[in-house]
Amino acid sequence: MLLTNHEIKAQVRLKSRNFNVLVYGPIFSVQLGHLRTVVLNDLKLIKEAYKMPEFMGRPPQAVFERASDKKGIGFVSGPDVFEQRNFFVKCARQFCYNDRGHFESKIQDEISHVLSKIGENVNQPCKMEHFFSIPTINALWSFLVGERFEHSDPKIKHLVKCASDYLSMDGIAAKLGYFVTVAAKLFPDFTGLTKQLKGGFSVYGFIDQEWKKGCSSRVPGQPRNYKEAWMDKFETASTNSSFHPSRNYFPATLGDILLAAVETTAATIDWAVIYLAMNPEHQKKLQDELDSVVGNRDLLALDDRPQLPYMEAVIHEVLRISSLGAFGLLHYTTEDCQFQGFSIPDKTCIIGNLYAVHHDPEIWESPQVFRPERFLDESNALINTEKIVPFSTGKRYCIGESIARDELFLFIANIFYKFNLICTENKPDLNPCQGVTSPPKPYEVIFIRRQN
Q: Where does the UniProt annotation place the signal sequence (predicted)?
C-alpha cells in the first residue's frame, strides 16, 4: 500500500531539532514544499533503509546543485559519487592510517596552537565563535594538500564564514526557501538563497584555485597527499571517469570534505566545551581520569584512548545530545520500491530523524540531560554505542568518521587536561543555529589553567 500521512499513530510526541513535528510512530509521510517525504524515526528502520540502493540518491536542491555544479560527494546522486568516495577512503587509509604517527603529529601541532592561544586568554571571558574551525581544517588540510593555514590568515577566516553561510537556514523564510524552491527563486534575498549561494561559490571557488596552483614538488606516481594522488588519477582517467580532466570534480569533492571539517568536527568540539563547562561534576570526573593515565606528559596521544573509557563516553554523549546532523543529509529514492510493506514512489525524499533516535525517551532515560555514564557499564566498559549514528549509516555514511573521531578525542582530551572551564554569567544557549547542521550559537567561557 502507498504510505500516506498519519498512517501509524503513537502516543509519543517528539520535538525535532529542525522542525516541530508530530511523530506518528516509526514511519510517516509528509509534504515538505515540493518534496514528497517519508520520515523514519526508528534506528532499525533507518539502518535498513540506508542499506538499500534505491535510497541512495539526494533530492534536487537548487542551492547545492548550483554552487557545486552538480558534482562532489555530499549533495548529489549517481555513480560518480561512489567513485569519489572510494578514492577518498583509499587515500585516508594510505596517508592517515598507514602512517598514523605522522598524521597524529599534524593534529597535535594544531592542538598546541590552540592551547597556546587559550593560554594567552586565561581567567577572563572568551568569546567562542568558529574558534576551532581553522585548527580542525588545518589538521585535515595537511592530509588533503600537504599544507596548513596561519590562524590569522584573513582568507581562511573568510572561508570559514562562507562555509557557515552556505549551510545555514536561520529563520522560517530560509526553511521555506529550502523546501519550496519557487519561493527561493522568487525571493532569493528574503529566503537567504543569495547568501547561501555566495558562500557556496566562495568555498568551491577557493578549492578550484587550490587545484590550479598545481604542485611544483610533486613526483608523479609517488603521491604524498590526497591532492597529489588525485593528480595521478587525473592523468590516467578514462573518459567516463569522474577523474577525467573534462569533468573537473576536484573542487566540489574537496569542497564537500572541507565543509564537513568546518561544520561538524569543529562544532562538536564546541558542544563538548559547552556541556562540560555547564556540568562541572562531569568535567572533574573526566579530568581525574586524564590525570591518572597521562601523568606528567605534555599531550595526550591516540594510544591513550583504550585507557580512557570515560573520555570515550563523554564524546559519545556529546554526539548524542547535540545531534549535530539532526536529519543527516536528505536521501532520495531513485526508483519505485517496497519498504516495510509500503510502496514508496520514485523521487521521494527520505529523512532519517537522527535527533528523534538520539532523544527517544524509550531508549534514553532523561534524554535532555547530559550524562556520559549512560555509555558505561558497571565495569567501566563502553555500552550503547550502537544506539547512536551521528555519522549516519548505510552506503552514504560519513567517510571521514575515523578522522573526525581521532580529532575529537585529541582536541577535547588535551583541552580539558590543560584547563578547567567555567561558564560566565551569560551561560551558553543550548538552542543551536539552524541549518544543514546544528552548531552552537556564539558563547562565552572562562579558561583556567590547571596545575597538573
A: none
